Amino acid sequence: MATKKVSRIAVLTSGGDAPGMNAAIRAVVRTAIFNKIEVYGIVRGYSGMIEDDIYKMDSKSVANIIQRGGTILKSARSDEFKTPAGRKKAFNNLKKKEIDGLVVIGGDGSFTGALKLSEEHGIPVIGLPGTIDKDCYGTDSTIGFDTAVNTAVENIDKIRDTADAHDRLFIVEVMGRDAGYIALNAGIATGAETILLPETKTDIESVIIGLKRKERRKKLVNLIVVAEGDELGGASEVAKVVKERLPKIDTRVTILGHIQRGGSPSCCDRLIASRMGYHAVVALNEGKRNVMIGIQNGNIVHVPLEDAISKKNQGIDQELLKISHILSI
Amino acid sequence: MATKKVSRIAVLTSGGDAPGMNAAIRAVVRTAIFNKIEVYGIVRGYSGMIEDDIYKMDSKSVANIIQRGGTILKSARSDEFKTPAGRKKAFNNLKKKEIDGLVVIGGDGSFTGALKLSEEHGIPVIGLPGTIDKDCYGTDSTIGFDTAVNTAVENIDKIRDTADAHDRLFIVEVMGRDAGYIALNAGIATGAETILLPETKTDIESVIIGLKRKERRKKLVNLIVVAEGDELGGASEVAKVVKERLPKIDTRVTILGHIQRGGSPSCCDRLIASRMGYHAVVALNEGKRNVMIGIQNGNIVHVPLEDAISKKNQGIDQELLKISHILSI
Amino acid sequence: MATKKVSRIAVLTSGGDAPGMNAAIRAVVRTAIFNKIEVYGIVRGYSGMIEDDIYKMDSKSVANIIQRGGTILKSARSDEFKTPAGRKKAFNNLKKKEIDGLVVIGGDGSFTGALKLSEEHGIPVIGLPGTIDKDCYGTDSTIGFDTAVNTAVENIDKIRDTADAHDRLFIVEVMGRDAGYIALNAGIATGAETILLPETKTDIESVIIGLKRKERRKKLVNLIVVAEGDELGGASEVAKVVKERLPKIDTRVTILGHIQRGGSPSCCDRLIASRMGYHAVVALNEGKRNVMIGIQNGNIVHVPLEDAISKKNQGIDQELLKISHILSI
Amino acid sequence: MATKKVSRIAVLTSGGDAPGMNAAIRAVVRTAIFNKIEVYGIVRGYSGMIEDDIYKMDSKSVANIIQRGGTILKSARSDEFKTPAGRKKAFNNLKKKEIDGLVVIGGDGSFTGALKLSEEHGIPVIGLPGTIDKDCYGTDSTIGFDTAVNTAVENIDKIRDTADAHDRLFIVEVMGRDAGYIALNAGIATGAETILLPETKTDIESVIIGLKRKERRKKLVNLIVVAEGDELGGASEVAKVVKERLPKIDTRVTILGHIQRGGSPSCCDRLIASRMGYHAVVALNEGKRNVMIGIQNGNIVHVPLEDAISKKNQGIDQELLKISHILSI
């Protein structure tokens, strides 16, 4: 790193929080300091940028946070930042502090704002994919997904205990408004008989037929894992149909909800957050701008923010779906 | 144990399952075998008794189950057992196998059935309090409570992470239809600002005033823990009122639900289940009948099933409620 | 609390750290503030008192710590404090700040120092039993024990998995230099065939005979839980004897060690720490001095520090030992 | 799967057990049944093959095991199988049952035996990499690694709590006789200042210099993570050197040991085990023989068993090591 391209950078977290965001902040801060780059933390995302809630960070600011859920920089929505006036106000606060590079940890909504800021005011921006849904183009991994899916699995295991004790059907809803990765992985890992995803059209008729067959075979324990964004409308809607059609089956609904966002990050999430945070600073320092740091086949890649925002992930692995059916017989 | 009063006993689990039931079954089976008493397992509670779903157990039947949630004997509701005819049919199955003593692990509904069976057919019955709600007269501890409350605490900790990241108000519903023990203990242990219980009248007005005050002080992270049986009607109802009165606060609801029933039992639940299971067999062997094994001040007590069914627990510890208010300032 | 007996107090943690110490600090600080008493934190126990490493705490100082292991006030050993000169120096630092009451969270070594400080310099002292070993006279519960024993149980469960897969004998050492509570409770909760405690003389001959019998019966999975303070000298010493006498058995040693001190405190530990911390301030405020806050049969008691230091706990519950033998057949 | 190449297969686990082996067994069994192939379980690996401890499995044999640590088929070492006579005896037992395909879940030692069996007796063999060390050529993932490294991380987090409370140096030994993957990943994820691996020559002098520098800076909390196979000889040896050279530092050793082998498998391990188990049967059914199922860049690959045994993994990621140094400043 012969000549530095940045000398003072800022980092923020934005959008829904995800376990591992703190590990990413730590990596950004310490890699910057190692490279003699000053580093600032922006509190509550773009809101804090507009309100000048920005403070200088040092190595100790990020001590003892790698294992913590949430984000020490907090996150918030900002409608004002969606306007050119809001972004101008925000940029002026960065300019005042002579900040010449920005790292944004969040999802595609956060990247959209970052890209506009850069286009309008010239500041280079690096995005890190921080989202439990793994709904992000250009990267195999996102910060938070592995923890979220393990939280889902641990809790569905508990529900299995009670489902098994009572020969009940449980319909468990996991997070995922547009993406079924949590549902698919958690469903296979807990041996769910049925997995309902936003990416595939739910054939409720065949679900009902499957349940009827199991009812006859007296295999009464059943588990349906459904992503919140399934086009049928989540666990409660599925339960309504099942209860109407199969009133004799003892059916219960559990919505895992926000517990999937919190908790100490898994080893995997800490590692990718550390790697991505390191490479965000390296990229800024090498003059890269407006890219997202992604991981593809284990390697770091630089994905143009434009692509990360506009392109679609390749979708659900059909083979995994097939395996899930075969293994839950 | 000079002269045995029983020579062949049966054990069943009934009602909502609770972590530690398997540890209790193990203790009943092995203590019986140690005392040269034959022991049978009845599957799916009173339903299995009626349907003669009863099998002989040995030491290996209960190997490697002390750490498992759920109940290997399964549980079920039985409307037929609520009739004298049903109980007669059930008793005949016990009689056929020359079973002369019964251990019932469950809540007060289960004890009611056991007591009627004993009164009508003379078989001595011992009850073990297995219920996560701790809603049981005559005992300081019930099998499953400690695990359930720790599961609630671990998950509310996770919700805290995300609440803190977003300065949100979370309203978390825990189990407890008639009893607020889970809500009270989990609420204090997670630093909840407000705890709503069935045992105390909820003054929603003062909750709103407290939230307003915190809104002004910009202490925006807030946690309300509410028992499902609160007279206001659970987390969703509370949220409705809060959203009407304080629309600016970002309010979310999480219902922990059935995850509180499952999971590997805590050390405490395994211990009390082991002690109670042991003492159930000792009691039968000493000729005791129709009592529940309880623990009071650390000591084993024998509570008449009649009392366990009809009497009320002393209720919520007012001092704990007071401490919870002071510590969440 | 009409007239206050103290107006400015300090709190410290001392000795081995225990999960729940942070919950106790939080309770002391917030109860003090609620009662309009100023409160100071002393860093690194008596060392920090001597070096004047003392800072004013407010409600925010203890935000978001109830769920954390370790102690934000840190702990340390101090040889200097064992001398009258050291204690004088320490007291002068308290005097300078007009501190008129002290809460000490730790074990009996810490209480000895506190009592001497009080006797020599007149400052009233309240002790809170914070020790994972539960080796403390006058209280049924100590802060940290429940978490430590659950950590032991969770990890021994994991060892069971691999012991079972290989038909191996595992000898697991848990903490407890003078007290076998962790070993006894964790041993019963994990179904250990043998439990070795400092309080009972280990009859190694009968352990060997038991293993031989099981070797013949081909019940090859075996688990011995041994407290580090067993008079045989810990797991490695026991393994040496077993390997000499029964060379054909595949024997492995695991020493759980310091993992038992850390981790997020259990619900139980957070609750007793909160209650005890609250009552420490109440006691100071009512003019009590030189007592330990204990819990007996669920009720708060005030045990003279002299007794807490010099008297012995009643020892191991013989019935539990008997139950452990019967249940591991 | 038009024409089946096998009609009756067997599955075994061998070598050190790893979390996820049960998920792999389940996948083999159910995929076989789905394809109308009969499937047998061999108990205790090659020992059981020699002793004819083999039983027919059905879909229910593997119900409710996906979440369990250990292996329901048990594992064992067999010296007899290392001889041609032993393998002949073993093969005869397979032949007797008309078993025409074999799935071996284990490490390279297990694959060596499998390959010899196939070469000598013609039975096609498929290997699945089941080892927590990830020390396996031809695959990015092995069954058990992700769980083991998360267990290490969770426990080192606990040690951090107590290290931090006492400003101590902890030297923690993790598994890995020939490979440092657990040490490297767990070390980065817990923010270890120093990570010692078998793959890199340990410059103990620079470790001592680093500790001295930190001693001067009063950054006293320190964590060294060392793989058991480091050429210095594990945590106890490292501690010996540190204590000699830096006697003032309060240094403690923890050896995590066998807890890293057990426990409920992570979502990741359940998934790769399920995929690999599925593909093992598909491969046999398509006529493939003597290959290991691996995962490279997310895709299933078939690695000749010969390569899996004789070739070396590409070794430690140097960039990760560099990141670990920068992030622990």
Describe the structure using short key phrases.
Rossmann fold; seven-stranded mixed sheet; homotetramer; alpha/beta; 11 helices; 2 domains; 329 residues
Describe the structure.
- The structure is a homotetramer of 329-residue chains.
- The first copy, chain A, has 329 residues and is α/β, with parallel strands linked by helices.
- Chain A folds into two domains: 8-144 and 265-310, Rossmann fold (3-Layer(aba) Sandwich); 146-261, Rossmann fold (3-Layer(aba) Sandwich), CATH 3.40.50.
- Chain A has helices at residues 21-34, 45-50, 84-96, 108-121, 145-166, 181-189, 204-217, 235-245, 267-285, 305-310, 318-327; strands at residues 8-13, 38-42, 54-57, 101-106, 125-129, 169-174, 194-196, 222-227, 251-255, 291-296, 299-304.
- Chain A has a seven-stranded mixed beta sheet with strand order 3-2-1-4-5-10-11, with helices on both faces. In chain A, strands 7-8-6-9 form a four-stranded parallel beta sheet, sandwiched between helices.
- The model of chain A has no long low-confidence stretch (mean pLDDT 94).
- The interface between A and B is large, with 36 and 36 residues.
